[in-house]
Amino acid sequence: MAKTLIWVEHDNVSVKDATLAVVTAAAELGEVTALVAGSGADAAAAGAAQIAGVSKVLLADDPAYANALAENVAPLIVSLLADYDAFLAPATSNGKNIAPRVAALLDVAQVSDILSVEGPKTFTRPTYAGNAIATVASTDAKLVITVRGTAFAKAEPTGGSAPIEAVSGSGDSGLSSFVGAEVAKSERPELTSAKIIVSGGRALKDGDTFKATIFPLADKLGAAVGASRAAVDAGYVPNDYQVGQTGKIVAPEIYVAVGISGAIQHLAGMKDSKTIIAINKDEDAPIFQVADIGLVGDLFTLVPELVSKL
Ligand SMILES: Cc1cc2nc3c(=O)[nH]c(=O)nc-3n(C[C@H](O)[C@H](O)[C@H](O)COP(=O)(O)OP(=O)(O)OC[C@H]3O[C@@H](n4cnc5c(N)ncnc54)[C@H](O)[C@@H]3O)c2cc1C
Average model confidence (pLDDT) for the chain? Predict the structure, then answer.
């Protein structure tokens, strides 16, 4: 049975949801050891130990690992990997920062953004913005993999009781330093784990109109707010709202696309949503090809009407 090491995404207190899908993917390959690299991260390690399917937690506690700086975390992972056959990380911004460094230090080819495990070294992954699915087989002795969170069921966050073992690494590599983080605070659910998402596109005109139109609908539905790249590029909302090929990949129960045309790069980020509702005044807009429910009309009439009826 293969031995896998996963990188746990966390904020030193709790484990991020993206980790749960990685546990499921890793368990399909073999035994799962979870690495919590952080600073004062006992609570995160305790959380990781409870995830069903995790057989051991390694806790590397050092100020150098406080903010998941890839330059510090990657050498730590490489030093631990002697005992493992595969390393897996979520295909999140941090995971995509760390895993390629691990692959480079090991001189192996990374398998990115896997959708399924087909065999001990064979995986599927999207290509051409998700328009084709490639089956790839690695010939490397050690696997380095990133996992698309929406493609795997989430492991149960509780129920496990894995032992926690302290490990240490070389700490600060001196290659980068943490300056600060500006984290947007929102009462709304996080985009990548929300059950319902309401997204707005270029048609929303400007930031104020976007907020006045989209936010009331999102609030009524208890939804997270997303946006197309055109809306983000025009400055209606910040970059971290972007859904799509170069934004976030989401697969909520319900995705409401308002004034979004449905360019392939946008679809690449949301087409796995269970139910897609599109509001667009152009009945030929490509979004209607993937929509389960389509409303053709002016969003500035339809959205307030929806809000008033909900
Ligand atoms: C390499 C690359 C990566 C990209 N990555 C992404 C990505 O990650 N995410 C992303 O979203 N895009 C991405 N794009 C951009 C993408 O190609 C499109 O340009 C973008 O998605 C268009 O955004 P939109 O649908 O909001 O705007 P538009 O295409 O301009 O569509 C606006 C829609 O609103 C409708 N509309 C206008 N007024 C109203 C009204 N009053 N009522 C109802 N409907 C109305 C119109 O009919 C139209 O369909 C990428 C492009 C490239 C080249």
Answer: 96
Task: State whether 130 and 200 are in the same domain.
Answer: no
Measured torsion, CA atoms of residues 115, 121, 122, 123, in degrees rounded to the nearest 10: 10
Nearest Cα to 84, choosing from 55, 64, 52? 55
Do residues 231 and 301 share a domain?
Answer: yes
pLDDT at 100 over 80: yes
CATH of the domain at 64: 3.40.50.620
131 with 245, same domain? no
71 lies in some domain: yes
Q: How far is CA 274 from CA 118, 183, 255, in A?
A: 24, 29, 8
The answer to whether residues 154 and 46 touch, using CB atoms and an 8 Å cutoff, is no
Among 127, 214, 255, 261, residue to substitute to test ligand 1 (most atoms within 8 Å of Cβ): 261
> How remote is the CA of residue 95 from the centroid of ligand 1, in Å?
27
* 99 and 238 in a common domain: no
Check pocket membership of 56 for ligand 1, CB cut-off 6 A.
Answer: no
Domain carrying residue 273: 191-309
What pLDDT is attached to residue 95? 97
Q: Check whether 184 has a pLDDT greater than 80.
A: no
Whether the CB of 226 sits within 6 Å of ligand 1: no
* 278 is a domain residue: yes
Ligand 1 mutation pick, 217, 246, 302, max ligand atoms within 8 A of CB:
246
pLDDT higher than threshold 80 for residue 120: yes
Backbone angles phi, psi at 132, to 5 degrees: -135, 150
Mean predicted confidence (pLDDT) in 208-212:
98
Residues 90 and 217 in one domain: no
